[in-house]
Design a protein that fits this description.
By secondary structure, the protein is α/β, with parallel strands linked by helices. The chain contains twelve helices and 13 strands. This is HTH lysR-type domain-containing protein.
Length: 309
């Protein structure tokens, strides 16, 4: 069926006039009449008939008008759906993150995002940095928010916030608020994160660089919050992000141990696949984060190209 002719017929059926339809469609009246005749010839049935100075639909015309209206209404729905996907008003946004962003900055960002894009299906996956990079690279995540200075092949990273890693002990611990050597601190029982976590790798690297032994007495706990809780109830020391224990330090439940001349950067980074333009929902999320932070210090240029127009 000639859809162009069907569209013209639908307009004629709606307006009840060939003349008005020609004006609405910005084409000539003879062109409208010719398309209607061609459609009637194609279907082998009369669709309209004259009624004074107007037209009247035949029974076949009435039936066709019902279905053509449905067809073009569906076309409008499809166009809107595709436009919503293009602009990021609908679709999905999968974010993979490590514990610190998941428990500090991301809840606020996601809520702000959902206020602007309520129809986007947002899913947040929490893991260590190794798993976050893998989810990003295997396309099960659109964006990753991770901590640390690690770089990954095939991934572009952008620094969002600068934090630091600090050593903590229970607030009543004899080393709370004191400065000690790294070697002395490693003699304490430790709460260690799981293999693959950034803080675990960083602690091992510090010990190797200083040529000292890693803690011999430790508990391994998967999860940042759980590790901090273990220290709060009285077990040993841990290396954790400063942002994660700010409140506990203020109320005295945890104390910081200072190691001379040691500052461990712990940036929070936004990560996307290299040379892969983010899908609209992800691009809108990135734009929102930049707006919330005010500015973005990137490790690679031309970040503006990732943002929606």
């Amino acid at each position: 069926m000639n859809l162009h002719a069907l569209r013209i017929f639908t307009e004629v059926a709606k307006s009840g006039s060939v003349t008005r339809s020609a004006e609405n469609l910005l084409i000539s009246q003879p062109a409208v009449t010719a398309q209607i005749r061609n459609l009637e010839k194609e279907l082998g049935m009369r669709l309209i008939q004259s009624k004074g100075r107007s037209i009247q639909l035949t029974e076949a015309g009435q039936e066709l008008a019902i279905h053509s209206n449905r067809l073009f209404a569906l076309e409008g729905e499809i166009e809107k759906k595709m436009n919503d996907l293009k602009t990021g008003m609908q679709g999905s946004l999968n974010i993979c993150t490590t514990s610190l962003p998941a428990n500090t900055v991301l809840p606020h960002w996601i809520i702000k995002y959902k206020e602007s894009y309520p129809l986007v299906d947002v899913k947040l996956f929490k893991s260590n940095s190794s798993s976050a990079f893998q989810r990003l690279l295997d396309y099960s995540a659109h964006v990753a928010i991770v901590c640390g200075e690690r770089e990954e092949e095939g991934v572009d990273t952008y620094t969002l916030l600068e934090d630091e890693l600090i050593f903590i002990v229970p607030g009543s611990h004899r080393l709370a608020g004191k400065e000690v050597s790294l070697e002395e601190l490693m003699k304490e029982p430790f709460v260690l994160r799981e293999e693959g976590s950034y803080t675990r790798r960083k602690l091992v690297a510090l010990c190797e660089s200083a040529k000292i032994n890693e803690p011999s007495s430790f508990i391994q706990i998967e999860g940042m919050i759980e590790s901090i809780e273990a220290v709060k109830v009285g077990y040993g020391a841990a290396l954790v992000p400063a942002l994660a224990v700010k409140n506990e330090q203020l109320d005295g439940k945890l104390g910081r141990v200072f190691v001379k001349d040691l500052y461990i950067k712990h940036p929070i980074k936004l990560c996307i696949r290299k040379n892969d333009e983010p899908f609209s929902p992800a691009a809108n999320f990135i734009s929102l984060v930049i707006t919330e932070l005010g500015q973005l210090e990137s490790t690679t240029p031309l970040f503006e190209e990732l943002l929606p127009e």
